[in-house]
Amino acid sequence: MTVLESIVAGVREDLDRRRARVPLSELEAALDDLRPTLDPMPHFRGGDLSVIAEVKRRSPSKGDLADIQDPAALAHSYAEGGAAAISVLTEERRFGGSLADLDAVRARVGIPVLRKDFMVDEYQFLEARVHGADLVLLIVASLTDAELTRFLGLASDLGLTPLVEVHTEEEVDRALASGAELIGVNNRDLKTLDVDLANFGRLAARIGDGVVRVAESGIFTPADAAKVRDEGADAILVGEALVRHGDPERAVAALASAAR
Ligand SMILES: O=C(O)c1ccccc1NCC(=O)[C@H](O)[C@H](O)COP(=O)(O)O
């Protein structure tokens, strides 16, 4: 079993437990009272490099990253530093995240929020919407073409912007065929956990200019941000470098301005 397959197996078990506690009908009923979602695309298409700053406690590749006591305060610092959106890891077993983190961040910031998780079931999309997410992540490597198409439609029906994540040429082709408008190139191979910052540059041209391109993972320095910007990134998604930094507001500002 690959790392990704083992993460997804755990996600499905946790999902079954939540579904037993909160039935789908309860989530559906809650949809009526929600505020409209925020659209991140105008910012991502605005010309400057957008920073999607992540709340990330732990990871399968690095173990414990940061003791985040107040995820809302961290997200607020990111927003003050100029982040275009906040990514909140909600997967519990491997990343130490939760829907409570998503709730807390949503309540504190006025910029778009991404529910970063392993989306494999319709239930999770309703959860994402009810807990205040504006974006959701669709990882091509863990979905069939039929699931990708179905989940893109579901996200759109709920007003959620899908960030479609790829790592290989074949996944780029599948993402484009599905009609994705926002594609994230993960520099981390989710099967081996190896990180190669050059992966974004390898795949960017294949994706093309008409799609908003996000460089994900392994971005630590302003020079890294400038490199992927030069290769065509509209946005970067950064976790470890920010949660380990003593001054997250300044760290976001430095990454955003490096590429101007
Ligand atoms: O971060 C991991 O080790 C990881 C392992 C398996 C699946 C997903 C994983 N990370 C999710 C992410 O995509 C990253 O959190 C995100 O791109 C930020 O990466 P980084 O800046 O390198 O923390």
Automatic annotation (TrEMBL):
Family, as annotated: Belongs to the TrpC family.
GO molecular function, one term: indole-3-glycerol-phosphate synthase activity
Reaction catalysis annotation: 1-(2-carboxyphenylamino)-1-deoxy-D-ribulose 5-phosphate + H(+) = (1S,2R)-1-C-(indol-3-yl)glycerol 3-phosphate + CO2 + H2O
Pfam families: IGPS (PF00218)
Name of the protein in question: Indole-3-glycerol phosphate synthase
GO biological process: L-tryptophan biosynthetic process
InterPro entries assigned to the protein according to its UniProt record, in alphabetical order: Aldolase_TIM (IPR013785), Indole-3-glycerol_P_synth (IPR045186), Indole-3-glycerol_P_synth_dom (IPR013798), Indole-3-GlycerolPSynthase_CS (IPR001468), RibuloseP-bd_barrel (IPR011060)
UniProt keyword annotation of Lyase present: yes
Record has ATP-binding as a keyword: no
Group of enzyme by EC: lyase
Keywords: Amino-acid biosynthesis, Aromatic amino acid biosynthesis, Decarboxylase, Lyase, Tryptophan biosynthesis
EC number annotated for this UniProt entry: 4.1.1.48
Every Indole-3-glycerol phosphate synthase domain range: 4-255
Pathway: Amino-acid biosynthesis; L-tryptophan biosynthesis; L-tryptophan from chorismate: step 4/5
